[in-house]
Design a protein that fits this description.
The chain folds into two domains: 30 residues, no CATH class; 425 residues, no CATH class. 45% of the residues are buried. Helices cover 63% and strands 0% of the residues. With 480 residues, the chain is mainly alpha-helical.
């Protein structure tokens, strides 16, 4: 799997059947005498691929950008919808309002940001950059206007487009940083990060919302753990949890790894660092507006069956509604049982599972029964999936299901899937089920790799059960 004795890196044309087959069109797999480029290292190629993929995603949003997201049908027919321009006016960023202000006049006109603090801080910061690049327009004249009036103002509309551009450039930097982290998790396998770098899911969903911020922090946590830095791992998990809730689940993977090796200090350090980082990140928002800070938690608790969820299928197919309390109870019971299953899997496996494997399994279980599955939620799984199962065949199967759902959700929202009879769009239910089936397929493959490590591409077919020896946490970290 290596190219020459001097190069310990695993080359994809010698490791992955799909890449090996594709390489036949350009001369076949890499040989013993293949040269090495001085500048184009695997990591730099991965970063370039990420930049190109992200740029293609920006081009895909061009139709909506040209009309400033004002065309109510094009955003669905061209599948170029983004929350960003709408939230610029609907959450008060056009007036540079602090997201957690308790000013009665602001709260009377604008909804509170329903996202965790990390996203709110980022949106507020990029709004300031947008105003500075716009020549610092006078915002006092906007105080008497409604959000709808501001959205129709040509000056504000131009700012909202610039706001998207500023965010796109910032998120592109985050994506490239995430790819760099992923390429460095296992020095032998930098090419595994290419699964993230040229993912169609990345191109299509990166600019729908700000979820990519947490993706960068999760990728950083995987990298920090592989470098034997539990405190930094915890800090990145804590900051990720302050941006989106799901990075918290990585602590479960750390718990299993440390329990397997009976070395608790790294887990304690990571957990404490995560808690401190989360508190520090949330403190400015909580101190300035406790009620506004709580909106994220109450919003998600009170939410009913929403887009992309199995709960929506059940509600619509049953011609009724599912009570919020029922959804909350069943979802958390299922997720709790799922986590217990992952715990038992990790403790009973022949070899200590890798953090990416455990993290992927836990996050996948959460998304399967979550009350909503927005199109960009695929990004939550992307870095974990890329390292948990670095095989292109399985990644193509999974992401094909995600891309199918991505198209279906916009057609559904645009009304293009509505039957002539006026009944519910059954095709959208099919898309939801297909997406879940594709996700479960990848879950099954990862579970098999954990139970039979010889199938794990990272460990390879030559893996044998090691003889009992002194605990070595460093080995597990080197495997990601």
């Amino acid at each position: 799997m290596t190219r020459g004795g001097h190069d310990a890196r695993v080359h994809p044309t010698l490791d992955d059947p799909v890449i090996a087959a594709l390489s036949e069109g350009v001369g076949g797999p890499v040989g013993e005498h293949a040269g090495r480029h001085r500048w184009w290292t695997p990591v730099r190629v991965v970063l370039a691929l990420t930049a190109v993929c992200f740029a293609l995603g920006m081009v895909q949003k061009n139709n909506c950008y040209q009309d400033s997201w004002q065309n109510g049908t094009a955003r669905y027919s061209h599948m170029c919808y983004s929350d960003l321009p709408y939230l610029y006016t609907d959450r008060g960023f056009a007036e540079l309002n602090w997201p957690y202000t308790d000013d009665p006049q602001v709260r009377a006109r604008y909804h509170v940001m329903e996202y965790p603090v990390g996203i709110s801080y980022w949106a507020w910061g990029t709004a300031w950059v947008t105003h500075w690049l716009s020549g610092s327009p006078d915002i006092e004249s906007r105080y008497g206007q409604t959000p709808a009036q501001l959205g129709a103002d040509k000056t504000v509309t131009a700012e909202s487009r610039l706001f998207v551009t500023v965010n796109a450039l910032g998120l592109a930097a985050v994506a490239i940083l995430a790819a760099w982290f992923l390429a460095g998790v296992d020095r032998r396998r930098p090419w595994d990060a290419a699964i993230f770098a040229i993912s169609p899911a990345l191109a299509l969903t990166a600019l729908v919302n700000w979820d990519l911020l947490s993706v960068g922090l999760v990728a950083g946590a995987l990298w920090a753990w592989s470098r034997d830095r539990p405190v930094l791992t915890g800090v990145l998990i804590g900051l990720g949890t302050a941006t989106k809730l799901y990075p918290l689940f990585l602590l479960g993977g750390l718990l299993i790894i440390c329990a397997r090796r009976r070395q608790w200090r790294p887990f304690v350090l990571a957990a404490v660092a995560a808690a401190v980082a989360w508190v520090v990140a949330d403190l400015p928002a909580y101190l300035s507006g406790p009620a506004e800070w709580r909106v994220f938690w109450s919003f998600n608790s009170d939410r009913g069956a929403d887009l992309g969820s199995i709960w929506l299928v059940i509600a619509q197919a049953g011609d009724g509604t599912v009570a919020v309390h029922t959804i909350n109870t069943v979802s958390w019971l299922f997720f709790g049982a799922w986590c217990v299953g992952v715990l038992l899997l990790g403790l009973l496996a022949p070899a200590t599972p890798r953090l990416a494997q455990l993290g992927f399994l836990v996050v996948a279980g959460f998304l399967l029964v979550n009350k909503v599955y927005s199109p960009q939620y695929v990004l939550w799984l992307l870095p974990l999936a890329a390292l948990a199962r670095p095989r292109w065949r399985d990644q193509i199967v999974w992401q094909a299901g995600e891309v199918f759902y991505f198209a279906a959700v916009w057609w559904y929202l645009g009304g293009y899937l509505a039957p002539a009879s006026g009944s519910d769009a059954g095709f959208y239910w099919v898309a939801i089920v297909v997406r879940m089936a594709a996700e479960l397929y990848l879950v099954g493959i990862v579970v098999r790799d954990v139970l039979r490590p010889q199938h794990d591409p990272v460990r390879g077919p030559d893996w044998v059960r090691p003889r009992p020896a002194a605990p070595s946490l460093a080995l597990d970290r080197s495997l990601g």
